[in-house]
Amino acid sequence: MRVALYVTCLVDLMRPSVGFASLRLLEAAGCEVIVPEAQTCCGQPAWSAGDRDLASDLARKAIAELEGYDYVVIPSGSCTDQICNVYPQLLSGDSLWGGRAQRLAERTYELTTFLADVLKVSTVPSEFDGSVTYHDSCKGLRTLGIKQQPRELLLRTPGAAIKEMADCEECCGFGGAFSVNFSEVSTRIVDRKCDSIAEAAADAVVGGDLGCLLNIEGRLRRRGDETTRVLHIAEVLAGGEES
Amino acid sequence: MSAAKHSQAMHFHARAGENVRNPVLQRALQKAKPLFVGKRAKGIAALADDGLEFEMLRTACEGIRNRTLADLDVWLDIFEERAITSGAEVLWARDGEEVGRLVVDIARRYGVTKATKSKSMLSEEAHLNEVLAKAGVRPVETDLGEYIVQLAGETPSHIIAPAVHKTIEEIEALFAKEHGRPVETRTSADIPDMTREAREVLRQHFLSAEMGISGANFLIAETGTAALVTNEGNGRMVTTLPKVHVVVTGIEKIVPTLEDFATLMRLLPRSATGQTISNYVSLLTGTKQPGDQDGPEKTVFILVDNGRANLLGSPYQDMLRCIRCGACMNHCPVYFSLGGHAYGWVYPGPMGSVLTPLYTGIENALDLPHASTGCNQCGSVCPVRIPLPKLMHQLREEQVERHLRPWSERLALKAWAWVAGQPVLYRWLTRRAVRYLNWLADDAGRIRIFGLAPGWTAGRDLPVASGRTFHELYKARK
Predict the structure, then answer these.
(1) Buried-most residue among A62, A110, B134, B411 (CB within 10 A)?
(2) Where do you find CATH 3.40.50.10420 in chain B?
(3) pLDDT at A242 over 80
(4) β strands within B168-257, DSSP E
(5) What value of ipTM does the predicted structure carry?
C-alpha cells in the first residue's frame, strides 16, 4: 500500500516533528510511505481569503503531485477538508480537473481517521506517559466528523489517560488569517480555551491541527503556563521525540 | 441603498477591539453564553421525548422554507387576499424609509400620540422609533429587553435578547434613574421584582396607547394570519388593546399553511431558548369582529422588502430561510467575545455578518464576512440549515472579484501563491524563513514580538522549531 504523506506547510515550517511522527505511525502500521517532493501548500489561505483563481491553481498543483498513490494522508483536519471538500467544489466546472479532484478526495484521509478507520490499527508505537486533554479542531470535527478516532487511538496508547476538558468542541479562535487580522478577538476566544485546559489540569493538551495548537500554545505560554505540554496527536501516538 | 447610511459596520474592527477590552460587557456575555447553549442543548435533546429527531425536523423545516421561497410571490398574493378578506389592510414597503412614512401616515389618520411596540427587528431596520418620535408619536418598547435598551438610548445587541450586553447592576442603575427611585443592591434573585417594576410602568402605556406595533415571526398565507412567538405577554397587550395594530415584517417571513407553521414551531423555540414552546403563541387574523372580546378595530400589515427580493435567485437565497432564532449567534465564539453592537447594524453574529453586507452594501461591511474563524458552530445548529460559513465565504469571493480588498493583502497573497507554485524556490525561501524565525526566538524557542505578523504576538507567543524545515530534515535523513 503506497501512501503519500502530505505534511502541510505549517508542519514543514513550524513543527517538523509532527511530520516525522506521522511517518513513523504510518510505517509502523505497515504502509509504504512516500513524501512527494514538490508539495508546498494546499492553498487554503488563498481560498479563505476569497481568491478562487489562486486557490484553484494550487489545487491543480496538489492534485497532480498527489493523485498517483493509493492513499494520501494528512496530519491536519483543515488541510484534509480543503482537499476532500473544497477541491471538488472549486474545480467542479473544470472538465479535466473536476473528476481528478473528486478521485483524489476519495483517497485522502486525515491521519487519525486513516489509522483508526482505514487501517484499523490495534497498537500504536507510543511511550507516552501522562494525562492528555483533547481539543477537537473545528474543520475536522464538523466537516469530517473526526471525534472518536483520536480518542480511540489515545485509549490504545499505554500510559496516556484522557481527561476531557469542558467545551472541547468549542473553537480555539485560530481561524488562519483571522488570528492575525482580528488578533484581540482571537486572543479573547483562545483565552476561554486556555481556561478550559487549565481546569482539565492534564499534562498535555493534544489536537490534530497545528494551527490550533500553535494558537493554544502561544496563548498558554503568554499567560505564564510553562508546564502544560501542547502536542499534536501524531507526536503522542508515535512516541519519542525526533526532529 | 438607504440602509447603508445608518450602518456602522465599517467600524467593526475598532469596535470589536474596544468591546473585547470592556470588562463589564465581558462579564455580561460570559454569563449569558452557557445559558443559551445549555438550554438549547436540553431543548433539542428533549425532542426524543416526543419521538422526534432533530435532523429529520431540520430537513422538514428547510424544505418548508425552500418551497415557500421558490414561489414567494404566489404565497404573498395569497396572504394579501386572505388578510384583506379577514378585514386587514395590506401595504408594501420597498425600504425602511417607506416603512416609516407608512406608519406615520397611519398614526396621523388615527390621531395616534403613543404607540406600544412588541419586539421587531425590522422596525430597527426602518429606525422606526426615531421616525415616530420626530412625527410626534411616542414609541414605547414593551419587551423587557427592548424596554431596557430604549431607556438606555441604545439599540438591541441580540435578536432575541436585546439587552444581553448589560449586567444586572447596569440595569438596576438605569431603572433607579428612569423610575425615579434610589439605587438598590440587586442580584439575579431580584429579577422578578425588577420585572414587576417595569410592568407597572408599561401597564399605563398599554392602556393609553392608540396604536400597537409588532413584528411577526411568521405570516401564514392560507389564513392571512400573523404568528407571534413571545414569552412575556407584552405581545398580546400590544396587538389587542390599542385600536390600531400595525404588523411590520419582512416578505420572507411567509409560510404556506398552519401545518407548516406548526412544524417550524417544533424547532424555533427550542433553537432560541430551549423551550418546547414559548409562553405565548398568538395567531392574529383580521380585526375585531362582532362578538369578539378584544382585538384591534384596524389591522395593517406592512410587508417589507428592504433588500430581500434581491436575494431571490442569487447565490445568497439560502439566507432568506432564516427564522430569526438566534442560535447562530448563541453558539458563535466571535459574537460572544464582543457582543452585538460591534457588528454595526441591526443583525449581529453570523446571520448579521451575511445580512448586513447584503442589505446595506457589500462595500459598506467589508470586515463582517471575515469576522469568522470558520468554525461552523453556527451552521451546525441552524434549524433551517443555512450554510452560514459558506455564505460568508461567498461574500469574501465577491469582495475579491469586485476589487474591494486592500492592495497590500492582494499583493501578499499573490506573491505567496506564486512562490507556493514553484517548489524549488519555495524550499529555498522556507529554509531561510525558518532560520530567520529561529534567530528571532528566545532561549525557550519562542518569538515574543513578531514584526511580520504583529497581530499574532500581541496576545500570544509564537513557538518555533529548530530552524530546519521538515523537507530539509527529511532529505538529509534519506
Answers:
(1) A110
(2) 2-309
(3) no
(4) 211-214, 218-220, 225-230, 244-250, 254-255
(5) 0.96
- Residue B49, Cβ neighbours under 10 Å: how many? 8
**What's the rounded Cα separation, in Å, for the pair B108 and B125?**
22
Residue A16 contacts B where some CB pair is shorter than 8 Å: yes
pLDDT digits (tens, 9 = 90+) for B86-95: 999 999 999 9
Query: How far is A118 from chain B, CA to nearest CA, in Å?
Result: 26
d(CA A205, CA A232): 8
Nearest residue to B345 (alpha-carbon basis) of B323, B368, B321, B325: B368
Strands of B87-210 (E only): list them.
89-93, 114-117, 138-141
Q: Which CATH architecture has domain B320-401?
A: Orthogonal Bundle (1.10)
B2-309: which CATH topology?
Rossmann fold (3.40.50)
- CA B130 – CA B181 distance, rounded (Å): 27
Cell of A156: 490504545
SS (H, E, C) A49-73: CCCHHHHHHHHHHHHHHHCCCCEEE
What angle (nearest 5°) sits at the alpha carbon of residue B362, between those of residues A94 and B253?
95
Report chain A residues whose CB lies below 8 A from the CB of B397.
Answer: 50-52
Residue A177, chain B, CB below 8 Å: the answer is yes
Question: Residues 6 or more apart from B287 whose CB is under 8 A from it?
Answer: B86, B87, B88, B295, B296, B297, B298, B299
Q: Which residues contact A89 (CB under 8 A, 6 or more apart)?
A: none
pLDDT in tens, B29-38: 999 999 999 9
Segments of chain B scoring below 50 in pLDDT = 1
- Domains with residue ranges and CATH for chain A: 2-118 (3.40.50), 130-238 (3.40.50)
Q: Which residue of B27, B29, B375 to mutate against A (max A Cβ within 10 Å)? A: B375
Helices B168-178 + B144-151 axis angle, to 10: 70
What confidence tens digit (pLDDT) does each residue in B208-248 have? 999 999 999 999 999 999 999 999 999 999 999 999 999 99
Interface test with A, best of B461, B470, B474, B478 (most A CBs within 10 A): B470
Domain with CATH 1.10.1060.10 in chain B: 320-401
Q: Mean pLDDT of all residues in chain A? A: 96
| pTM to 2 decimal places | 0.96
CB of A139 within 8 Å of a chain B CB? The answer is yes
Report how many Cβ contacts below 8 Å link chain A to chain B: 190
Report residue B154 as a C-alpha cell: 441604545
